[in-house]
Recover the amino acids of this structure.
């Protein structure tokens, strides 16, 4: 192999490595975006669940108070 063939080979391998790294970082970036989106969704679901829990607790307290007034529970 002559010197220019070696340089061409090194150049091609280097470009392939750079392309592979860019592709992997692109995939990792997409993964991070997907994870962030899922975390936002999870926060929204937790917020909604806490709101529902508050409503259910209030309903249970009203029912317990009503039953106390009726004398069914002490």
């Amino acid at each position: 192999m002559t010197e220019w063939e070696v340089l061409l080979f090194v150049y091609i391998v280097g470009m392939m490595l750079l392309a592979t790294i860019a592709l992997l970082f692109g995939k990792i970036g997409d993964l991070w975006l997907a994870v962030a989106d899922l975390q936002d969704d999870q926060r929204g679901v937790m917020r909604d669940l806490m709101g529902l829990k508050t409503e259910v607790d209030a309903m249970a307290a009203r029912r317990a108070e009503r039953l106390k007034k009726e004398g069914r529970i002490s």
About this structure: The chain has a mean pLDDT of 89. Residues 3-70 form the longest helix (68 residues).
